[in-house]
């Protein structure tokens, strides 16, 4: 609430109490405004985040105690446009661009940047701000926060490095296996047709691995199939049953994007791997049908195994892969999953949010 809004509210209070609009009313209004401002400062100083506010034009005129504790700068030294000098030089233009866009449009402000700590180190920070509007819808003030996210970002970057290194080693193993097959085929020409087919399968497994491994926004595959059936075909191409017609994909074909590709790939890579070990895909007569149906804002996907080994019941313990699939469906795709251990084969029924498969037009990447 701006000072004008505070003052107007204070006048209403004094009028409601029967005070005149004379000198006593003004004194009461100022007293009320002072108490409200004091309460606001106490509240923001008690928060763990850095809190700041600006005038409608973006002029910074208030920072809480956490800001000065974090930055170590003298009080008032970052008023106006001085705040931008606290950012890492490589982040200043980007932060300014986002902030100007919010000021021009009234849209919420959110940006990650490196903020100079009082130690001299730059720490990653999440900056957010929302506009405060009056009854006419006019912006009278911006209220913002800065949250130190440096530790969590460093952990995420370390995990990404480890993930990339592990992925690199796994792909190297695929390459070595492909090379060994090629050498054997050259020594035994009669094996070349089979070797070529096997190398194609291994290459498909490598592509499936690239989709299924954990990704950051930076490492996420840029080129993906734009539909669910296209992605599933890419992931399952390593299994002979697909080419033989024993692994089918039928029904609706909703669009997807990079956000949903990884959890989808992970889920079906896990289902296919388990089926090849223990289920229908472990048998030359077994088959798997993937059925897809879109119903308004939900998409139903069923994995149905038949004609494989007889199923005596579900496993006694839940493995890591099963828990990972559960997490991908319920958390990342906002859905549900049910497993049915039928005598003729496993059936897995999944329902996922259509909104999680593909971003809406104009949504941020």
Automatic annotation (TrEMBL):
This protein's name: histidine kinase
One annotated GO molecular function: ATP binding
Catalytically driven reaction(s): ATP + protein L-histidine = ADP + protein N-phospho-L-histidine
Residue ranges annotated for the PAC domain, each copy included: 109-161
NCBIfam families (UniProt xref): sensory_box
EC numbers on record: 2.7.13.3
SMART domains registered for this protein in UniProt: HWE_HK, PAC
Domain of life: Bacteria
Keyword line: ATP-binding, Chromophore, Flavoprotein, FMN, Kinase, Nucleotide-binding, Phosphoprotein, Photoreceptor protein, Receptor, Repeat, Sensory transduction, Transferase, Virulence
Entries under Pfam families matching the protein: HWE_HK, PAS_3
Signal peptide: none
InterPro entries: HATPase_C_sf, PAC, PAS, PAS-assoc_C, PAS-like_dom_sf, PAS_fold_3, Sig_transdc_His_kinase_HWE
Gene3D superfamilies assigned to the protein according to its UniProt record, in alphabetical order: Histidine kinase-like ATPase, C-terminal domain (3.30.565.10), PAS domain (3.30.450.20)
Originating organism: Sphingomonas ursincola
Catalytic class of the enzyme: transferase
């Amino acid at each position: 609430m701006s000072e004008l809004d505070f003052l107007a509210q204070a006048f209403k209070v004094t009028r409601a109490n029967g005070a005149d609009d004379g000198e006593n009313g003004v004194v009461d209004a100022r007293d009320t405004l002072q108490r409200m401002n004091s309460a606001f400062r106490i509240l923001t100083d008690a928060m763990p985040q850095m809190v700041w506010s600006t005038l409608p034009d973006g002029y910074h005129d208030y920072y809480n105690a956490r800001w000065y504790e974090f930055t170590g700068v003298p009080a008032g030294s970052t008023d106006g446009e001085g705040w931008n000098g606290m950012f890492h030089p490589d982040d200043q233009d980007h932060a300014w661009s986002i902030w100007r866009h919010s000021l021009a449009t009234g849209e919420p402000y959110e940006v990650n940047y490196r903020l100079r700590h009082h130690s001299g180190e730059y720490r990653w920070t999440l900056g957010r701000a929302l506009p405060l509007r009056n009854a006419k819808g006019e912006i009278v003030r911006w209220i913002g926060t800065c949250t130190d996210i440096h530790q969590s970002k460093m952990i995420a970057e370390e995990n990404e490095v480890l993930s990339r290194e592990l992925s690199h080693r796994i792909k190297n193993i695929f390459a070595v296996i492909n090379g060994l097959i090629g050498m054997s085929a050259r020594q035994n020409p009669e094996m070349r047709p089979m070797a070529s087919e096997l190398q194609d399968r291994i290459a498909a497994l490598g592509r499936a691995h690239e989709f299924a491994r954990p990704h950051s926004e930076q490492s996420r595959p840029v080129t993906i199939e734009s539909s669910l059936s296209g992605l599933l075909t890419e992931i399952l191409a390593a299994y002979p049953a697909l080419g033989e017609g024993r692994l089918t994909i039928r029904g609706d074909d909703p669009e997807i994007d990079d956000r949903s590709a990884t959890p989808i790939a992970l889920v079906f890579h896990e289902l296919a791997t388990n089926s090849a070990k223990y289920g229908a895909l472990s048998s030359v007569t077994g088959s798997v049908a993937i059925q897809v149906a879109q119903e308004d804002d939900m998409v139903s996907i069923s994995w149905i195994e038949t004609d494989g080994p007889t199923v005596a019941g579900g496993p006694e313990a839940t493995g890591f892969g099963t828990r990972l699939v559960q997490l991908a469906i319920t958390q990342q795709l906002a859905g549900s999953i049910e497993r049915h251990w039928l005598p003729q084969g496993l059936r897995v029924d999944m329902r996922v949010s259509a909104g999680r498969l593909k971003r809406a037009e104009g949504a941020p990447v």
